[in-house]
């Protein structure tokens, strides 16, 4: 009986709906969601990836007003995740800002004829580390996007602020998106990664290690993967994505993940894409914040103490050195000048003709010892900048001065590099040869070990200093990281702190090594490659870095050791 009444009730209700159609309309009275437009374009003018041609699509929401530059989402491999319709809804509901979408394919170089194969650039552009794809987006593609217009003639104007930019993709497109943000956090701050290829195809397997060592960057990352993802010659995608999540969490990044049980496809990613966008854009326009990093980084860096510009506009800065009072000096090699930076930050000329002066360091007698490469001399400057020749016949690069007054000089030359010892009396002798390009040189805090950087390899060599100044027990001791776009680390100037850490200027930034020869931290400078470092300031707790045409400084927790200070025996390393 109850079943029959229910059936009758349904029939009556259906009849009422047919008779009163406004009941249906009342249930669906919300205004329709404005739909954006999608327009296809082609780009074939790349100088970064010469000869390539690629399609890209621009999504423009109805709400976009060219009077205000829009946020931008860039997706690799073209249109994915039903993104235009997702953006329509989220923008309409106020759950993400007004955002223009750019969906770009990888490039291909067209074959010259039908009997030849195109060159497919996908893995080359996407899977490798380094900054060239980010440069392609910023210097080539996005400017081309801004040349276009919406269907109704609205100009395309994109915000250049990192907090207004999100980048994403799937598989190789995901690691490509992460790499763009990793290399240019000043341009991209939000990353969506689906089934990311963080494996050994072109070095992506190194990311979990690099993330743990690098000073954290201000980016927010959403990771998706499934338990049935690929497990092939290049690696295990499922394990690699979990390693990425753990590394990002370890380093203090704002990271969220959604793990499923699917394979190498975008089905799960498409389902969770709306929630991922809500999370990535949460609290916009506030920018994502950088985490604190590893305990090793926290032992060195002070919160709220970023790099500060000391000087700029030079040709090539080198030779950072601190006087016994902490006053800072540096050289401009091509211009053959040495500059002094006073406590108030004022920069003045100290030496007008340094003969292509390069490496510099203050000795135990308070004089500034320098390599005058153009004159093939080692000189010492007094407080007034007057030079005294210490040794001749050495076309050196860098030098280290011990508390005893002994000097070690690197001389790269055109053949095998050499290392020279100059005694306190001025007697010189060759004490090592054979490095590809002997560059930076430093001494341990207890003056028992000499460190020499090989610019054209990934190694810093360690030698034991003998009583007569000779070197023994040579080892390729410090193992440095090499950037993806280089064949070597570019290891240059070096200094030690009182705890025995070695700070090495490299292409990646300042690589900080423990006494056991392992890179614990990487501290980039604002303009990439570093040529030399030193500790200065009254307490020698300010880290200075010469970097291209600029010089930077940064207050740190640790203190550097100087030749004019008593020798220090650090605590033994944790092995």
Kindly describe this structure.
The chain has 575 residues and is an alpha+beta fold. The protein has 2 domains: 37-280, Alpha/Beta hydrolase fold, catalytic domain (Rossmann fold), CATH 3.40.50.1820; 295-555, TolB, C-terminal domain (Neuraminidase). It is built from 10 helices and 36 strands. The strands form 8 sheets. Strands 1, 2, 3, 4, 5, 6, 7, 8, 9 and 12 form a 10-stranded mixed β-sheet that branches. Helix 3 (83-92) runs parallel beside helix 9 (267-280) and helix 7 (207-213) runs parallel beside helix 8.
Question: How is the secondary structure organized here?
Answer:
Layout: H1 2-19, H2 22-27, E1 37-43, E2 52-60, E3 71-76, H3 83-92, E4 99-104, E5 108-109, E6 119-120, H4 122-126, H5 132-145, E7 165-170, H6 172-183, E8 190-194, H7 207-213, E9 220-226, E10 231-232, E11 235-236, H8 237-250, E12 254-260, H9 267-280, H10 295-298, E13 308-311, E14 317-322, E15 328-332, E16 337-341, E17 347-351, E18 357-362, E19 368-372, E20 377-381, E21 387-392, E22 398-401, E23 407-411, E24 418-422, E25 428-433, E26 438-443, E27 449-454, E28 459-465, E29 471-479, E30 494-496, E31 502-506, E32 509-513, E33 519-523, E34 532-536, E35 542-547, E36 550-555
